[in-house]
Here is the input.
Amino acid sequence: MKLSEKLKQGRQRARLTQVEVAESLHVSRKTISGWENGRGAPDRAILVQLSQLYQVPIAVLIDDDQELDLSEAALQKAARRRRLTQLSYWLMVPLLGLAYAEFFRLNGFHLPIFKRAPAVDCNHDHADYFHF
Here is the structure.
């Protein structure tokens, strides 16, 4: 199946008009029509946006040998995979931040914000502090 056919089927499955797709991608309606009629093709960045908009994996859009599976199960699987990827990203960011901070703490690097108080010598006579 050609990319142009997949783009048209994906848009129709998402129940979007060419105008709505064009507005969301910031292109003209004629551009969308051209893509769907095989008179041109979107660039990589637009393909990513289209795959998200139509909830179809980008690999399926690009590969001519793969049919566009628009079944509800396939759409749910793609959405679940996308949510899992986003969740793992947002969990990994703070963990990497903590690992980074721990690395510098273990290597003796301390932030100058938290200055240590000078050590107190408790073994000397305090008499020289009190002069009457």
User: Anything to note?
Assistant: The longest helix spans residues 72-106.
